[in-house]
Every structure is written in C-alpha cells, then in structure tokens.
Amino acid sequence: MVQYQILGDLEYNFVYQALLVAFEKHEELGDQGLEEVQKNQFNDIALRADMECEQAVIHYLRSNRMPIRVFSEEHGRVDITAGPIYLGVLDGIDGTYVYRTEKRMGRHATIFAILRTIDPLYKDYLVSGIMEHATRRMFLVTADRKTVVITLGEGVCELGPLCGTLPKELVGGVLGGAVKQ
Predict the structure, then answer these.
(1) pLDDT digits (tens, 9 = 90+) for 7-59
(2) 117 near 87, Cβ under 8 Å?
(3) Which of 41, 74, 45, 44 is nearest to 57 (CA)?
(4) Is the Cβ–Cβ distance between 126 and 112 less than 8 Å?
C-alpha cells in the first residue's frame, strides 16, 4: 500500500488517512449503516455506521502502530499502543439524526483530531479533520492554521497563500486515490 503524503507532517497524514478509511467504510455500508446495533457509553442508540466508521479508524491506527489514546463516542477509551503519546478524539458519525432521517444524504461526518499529549490543553491540538460523507468533502485544520479542503474525486485546495490540486487519478475512486493499491 502506497500512501500519498499531501500535508507533510506525520500526524496530519494520520488524520487524513484515518478519515479516508472511515469514508470507505461509510460507502461500503450504504443503507446497512442505518441499522441500530446497540447503545453506546452514553446510553444513546448507535447505528452500524457509527460503530464501523470508528472501528475502521481504530483498525487503521493499530495497523500503523500509532502511539495514541483515542476517546470515541461509541468505543470509549482505546489505547492503540502501550504507552500512548498522543490523544485522539473520534466520532464515527457526527449528525446521526440527520444521517438517519435524510437517508444518508443529510449533513453528517466522521470527525477525528490529534492532540500532542494525553493530558492536553487547548493549545495542544495538532490537527483536526472532518470527513463530510454526503458531499465527499474533507476539511483539515492544523495547529499552524493551515486549512486544507479536499473534495474526493476533484482535488485539493489549500486555503492560504497557495492553492493547488492533486491529479484526478490520485483522488478518483472510492478512497479518493489517497491509497494506491
């Protein structure tokens, strides 16, 4: 598996790749993602997409041995490796009500952020990302205020002094070409 680095720093690319695997899972599930599967730690009903988008991100982080402790809405606290360095915050499907009532087409997203320590302050955010599934848009914001908007299948626009695009062959297909087989 070849991974294309578009943001430069390791943590940023972990968020980028993690959101892509969540998007792939979301697309794979289709309407099956709307199934109610269990109650989460907050006693709210979790949908299959909530659970499986989070699980896809957790699996990605484990397979890459990211030293991170993740707090997620559906899975609670998960240490990806022993002795985590980073803290991750994950929501498999934010906007579950809209996702359910508008049959997957309303505004809903997977959200994932990485902070530089497991006991963070607000200033410790490294990168936050949102994968808006229905629009196929990913938003990434870094600690140094770099903002990247990616529309899968169309390209990348870095808001700030530079704006560019990736070749369509890198951003086409289900994963948006971020992972080349």
Answers:
(1) 447 777 889 999 999 999 999 999 999 999 887 777 788 899 999 999 999 99
(2) yes
(3) 74
(4) no
Q: Tell me which residue of 6, 4, 3, 2 sits closest to 146, measured CA to CA.
A: 6
pTM, full prediction: 0.79
- Residue 37, token pair as written in the block: 């599967």
Which one-letter DSSP state was computed for residue 166?
A: -
CA distance 56 to 9: 22
Report the side by side order of strands in the sheet with 137-142. Answer: 76-79, 68-72, 86-94, 109-115, 125-132, 137-142, 147-151, 155-159
Structure tokens, 169:
């062959």
Two tokens at 54? 């989070």
Q: How far apart are the first and last CA of the chain?
A: 6
Counting other chains too, the contacts that 8-15 makes at CB distance below 8 Å and 24 or more residues apart are 9/126, 9/127, 9/142, 11/86, 11/114, 11/126, 11/127, 12/126, 12/127, 12/140, 12/142, 14/61, 14/64, 14/66, 14/114, 15/112, 15/113, 15/114, 15/127, 15/128, 15/129, 15/140
What DSSP state is assigned to residue 167?
A: -
